[in-house]
Structures are given as C-alpha cells and as structure tokens.
C-alpha cells in the first residue's frame, strides 16, 4: 500500500498528457499540465528506472482502490 506523501513542499498539477523528447544532454519527460502548460524534466537511466517503479506502485494502488469500489 502506498503511503500518503507530505504535500507541504510539493507542487500539485493535473497531468493531461506526456511524451518523451530528446534533450541536449540525453532525454526528457515532457508533461502537459492543466495549470502550467508543458513542463520538461531531464532524465537519466537511474531516474527512468525510479519513475518506472513509482508508476508501477501507483498502478497497484489504483487497482486496489478499484477492487474495493
């Protein structure tokens, strides 16, 4: 089960789209948000693996919620 993160230092946005893009020093994840337009994050392989793990946990959390609905 996922722990609820502290939100006092977090920026919360609604993601409405995403894509990968080339960046000068490698790759970037571009998120399209309802509030701020596009925001790009530079990525390395370590961060890609960490994002994959976090997304997998988020998917499990949502599946558990759907199962209890």
SSE inventory with pairings:
Layout: E1 15-23, E2 26-33, E3 37-43, H1 45-67
Antiparallel strand pairs: 1-2, 2-3
Low-confidence regions: none
Along the chain, the helix and strand elements come as EEEH
Biggest β-sheet strands, sense, barrel:
3 strands, antiparallel
Radius of gyration: 14 Å
Number of strands: 3
Description of the structure:
The protein is α+β, with helices and mostly antiparallel strands and 69 residues long. The chain is 33% helix and 35% strand. The protein has one helix spanning 45-67; strands at 15-23, 26-33, 37-43. A 3-stranded antiparallel beta sheet has the order 1-2-3. It starts with 14 loop residues before the first strand and ends with a helix. The model has no long low-confidence stretch (mean pLDDT 87).
